[in-house]
Design goal:
- This protein has 373 residues and is α/β, with parallel strands linked by helices.
- It has 2 domains: 259 residues, 3-Layer(aba) Sandwich (Rossmann fold); 57 residues, no CATH class.
- It is 29% helix and 24% strand.
- It contains 12 helices and 19 strands.
- A hairpin with a 4-residue loop joins strand 10 and strand 11.
- It starts with 16 loop residues before the first helix and ends with a strand.
- 46% of the residues are buried.
Length: 373
């Protein structure tokens, strides 16, 4: 029998009687593949990248969450950075940023080269940890190699258990899930030359977020295609793509994701994924805007209706001026347009692949990705 502490919070309402019966059956059986909320499990603050020092909503929210367990104590971990000079630059940049926002809050620095004893002691002192960008594989290799527990990883779990916050930008965002993306572009992921498990490249993550696979720099690097293939290859239903200057908060006690910034993120759902050749279709995308709240456990427990078929007219083509900001947010414009009811078909072609999207009638977009013809 599962512990009652793993039952979703009272505010979590399921969408239908059928879903409720199935959910209760899963609990009574003591065997379920649905990750359930964990009471008293702290927060994650996932930043897609490009964390400028003047991004008030992110720094203020991180400091507020770090204050929940008691007097705040911040640890900055540069574990994802390889070059010593780059580590030093990032340490100075981020520690000075925290000094500007909260001059009286202690800030501690941890590198990959620090010993287990030093690292565990720092993590146990922390109420909030921020993982910088770099290479997410280096974080997992140091603290959870091959998906195995280490003293450092257990210290991070203790931080969450006492109500603290783990945050990260870029690589620090990509490492959050139990399996994580390590590399690979959209065109290569969608190519018929790619093989499952090779492109996109994936590996064990840090397993802080049980309900979705995370990706960073999402809109700016046009990563919807590879995230869809990553979900298909890993057997996961939900993906969480976080854009630059964007952040989402995850309450691990409830599984609710909240948009923190004016820049958007995207929840991808492949529960109705269809594949024809190298085309993946019937995928849903839900924009997460500032203040939006989405329950990931509820989404996983809900069987959505099949998406509507692709419309034929009108066709809205998103064009790019290359290079520049116009191109960087083109994918976001597709999802913005296709999320509006009765807006027709939206289409864009990128580097070796294309995407088409249309409204699902529920405030979300349906889309398909394929290699460019």
């Amino acid at each position: 029998m599962k512990s009652l502490s793993n039952i979703p919070a009272p505010g979590l309402r399921l969408s239908s009687l059928t879903t409720l019966i199935a959910f209760i059956t899963l609990i009574l059986s003591g065997c379920t593949s649905l990750p359930l909320p964990l009471r008293g499990a702290g927060h994650l603050l996932i930043v897609g990248g490009g964390l400028d020092n003047d991004l008030r909503p992110i720094f203020e929210r991180l400091l507020a969450l770090a204050s929940k367990p008691g007097k705040p104590h911040i640890v900055i971990a540069t574990t994802a950075i390889t070059m010593e000079k780059d580590q030093l630059d990032e340490e100075i940049d981020k520690s000075e940023a925290f000094r500007a926002w909260a001059p009286n809050v202690p800030v501690e620095l941890i590198r990959r080269s620090h010993s287990t004893e030093q690292t565990v002691a720092a993590f146990d002192r922390a109420t909030g940890i921020f993982f910088t960008g770099g290479n997410q594989e280096l974080i997992a290799q140091r603290y959870r190699p091959g998906g195995k527990e280490t003293p450092e990883w257990l210290a991070l779990k203790r931080l969450l258990a006492r109500g603290g916050v783990i945050s990260g930008g870029s690589a620090g965002a990509a490492m959050m899930s139990d399996v994580m993306l390590l590399g690979g572009g959209n065109a290569d992921s969608l190519s018929d030359r790619s093989r499952p498990g090779q492109v996109p490249r994936m590996g064990p993550g840090m397993a802080f977020l049980p309900w979705a696979v995370t990706d960073s720099h999402f809109f700016e690097r046009d990563r919807a295609g590879r995230l869809v293939v990553a979900l298909e290859n890993s057997g996961r239903r939900l993906g969480l793509g976080v854009g630059e200057d964007a952040a989402v908060e995850v309450n691990l006690a409830t599984g609710v994701v909240t948009g923190i910034t004016g820049s958007d993120s995207l929840l991808i759902d492949v529960s109705h994924l269809k594949r024809s050749g190298q085309t993946r279709s019937n995928v849903r995308g839900r924009l997460i805007r500032q203040g939006d709240r989405v329950s990931l456990p509820r989404r996983l427990a809900t069987e959505l209706p099949p998406p509507p078929p692709k419309p034929t007219t009108p066709i809205n083509t998103v064009r790019f001026a290359f290079p520049g900001q116009n191109r960087q947010l083109g994918q976001w414009r597709v999802f913005m347009g296709a999320s509006r009811p009765h807006s027709g078909l939206w289409r864009t072609r990128l580097d070796g692949w294309q995407m088409e999207a249309w409204p699902d009638g529920r405030g979300e977009a349906v889309f398909e990705v394929s290699p460019s013809p």
